[in-house]
Amino acid sequence: MKINIEINTDNQAFEFDENMEISRILKELIDNHDFLNREQVKLFDYNGNSVGIAKIINENRSQNMNIDKIIHDKFITLLDKETINNISLLNHSLYGTLIDEDYTFDFSKIANEVRDKLDNIPDINNRCFYDEFMEYWYTDRNGNLISNECALDIEDEDKHNDINDILEIRSQDILKTILGNELYSTIY
After folding, report:
1. Is a pLDDT exceeding 50 seen at residue 59?
2. Pair 111, 20 in one domain
3. Can you say whether residue 50 is alpha, beta or left, with left for phi > 0 and alpha for psi between -120 and 50 degrees?
4. What is the pLDDT of residue 155?
5. For residues 135 and 182, which has the higher predicted lDDT (pLDDT)?
6. Do 167 and 85 fall within a single domain?
């Protein structure tokens, strides 16, 4: 992955202290946790004027997008509706958009229920691998293969000799995709 950043410093915001304003813009970019999931982000000076762009050049972007699709297809479907609703409520609470006129929402209780539910789904807590043929297999935390059906695929030498990449989807990546980064950081 490459990140190209272009900042035009030919305006009033940079007149007083150019280095400080560049630092402020870069800090704002770093604090934008969604930045690496996007192809480009506009950069703004403190007056709100567009002064540049940060572009992600990722040759593996299609693989990253496949990981998101795998997580959605394989793991989010393992959740029941109540857990999905609770995750939504927790995120609304974190971002201050939860409407709770009676003040009865118990963040800690619901966060514990969601965490317990997620921790008890074996597929989320095992190591998941996939190859360029979009075949999946799981191992436990000790590296022991869980699925015998996939063991046959892994041992198929002719098919797997030309594999460029075998990617691991870590449990924290799965949980961050399901919960969102902020909620993951809060309850784990």
Report:
1. yes
2. no
3. beta
4. 44
5. 182
6. yes
